Amino acid sequence: MSAEMEDFLKDTVNPKDLEKFEKNYRRELEANNVSHSTQFEYAFCLVRSQYARDIQAGILLLEDLMTRHADGKRDYIYYLAIGNTRIKNYTDAAKYCKAFLQIEPNNTQVLGLETYIKKKVDQESMKGMAVAGGAALVIGGIVGLGIALAKNKKNNNQ
Questions:
Q1: Taking the C-alpha atoms of 79, 82, 88 and 89 in order, what is their torsion angle to the nearest 10 degrees?
Q2: HSE (side-chain half, CA atoms, 13 Å) at 132
Q3: Which of 70, 85, 107, 122 could form a Cys-Cys staple with 93, CB 3.0–4.6 A?
Q4: d(Cα 17, Cα 60) in Å, to the nearest integer?
């Protein structure tokens, strides 16, 4: 399931689709009358963009929809989890997975996403520990070298 999820998260929107839905959204925005469906379609495209800035914009649009349009809450939460996962904001992604699973506890896609997020968090933690361990070894080596040089200098001065 993890490889499938990885492939799903790497899948990006067709630029022509993004452009089409952006035009619809901007047209309605200029008329000061953006429908929930137009905003969702545009946000859906944005969270599937290859650019983090687009994904973040899609997340903002979805968060706005969550506060104003309860009917689509399930879909908004799902794509908020996807968008946050794609930009490696695993804390918020996990929060949205939990919220979704309260609505639909046995959803295999979201359970798979939750497992994927946990795996990524564990990997990030391991990387962090490896970096910290490596830094400690480097500092220990420098201190050891300094002590050895100081002893060598002391022995040469005697």
A1: 40
A2: 6
A3: 85
A4: 19
CB neighbour class for 108 (10 Å; exposed up to 12, middle 13-18, buried from 19)? exposed
CA dist 93 and 88 (Å) reads 8
In the chain, DSSP finds a helix count (H) and a strand count (E) of: 7, 0
For 1-46, give the secondary structure using H, E and C: CHHHHHHHHHCCCCHHHHHHHHHHHHHHHHCCCCCHHHHHHHHHHH
Using alpha carbons, select from 38, 128, 120 the residue that is nearest to residue 84: 120
- Percentage helix, strand, coil for the chain under 3-state DSSP, each rounded to 5: 85, 0, 15
CATH class of residue range 2-122: mainly alpha
Handedness of CA 93, 105, 5, 53 (dihedral sign): negative
Q: From first to last of the 158 residues of the chain, give the pLDDT tens digit.
A: 567 888 889 889 999 999 999 999 999 999 999 999 999 999 999 999 999 999 999 999 999 999 998 888 999 999 999 999 999 999 999 999 999 999 999 999 999 999 999 999 988 876 555 555 555 555 656 666 666 666 666 666 66
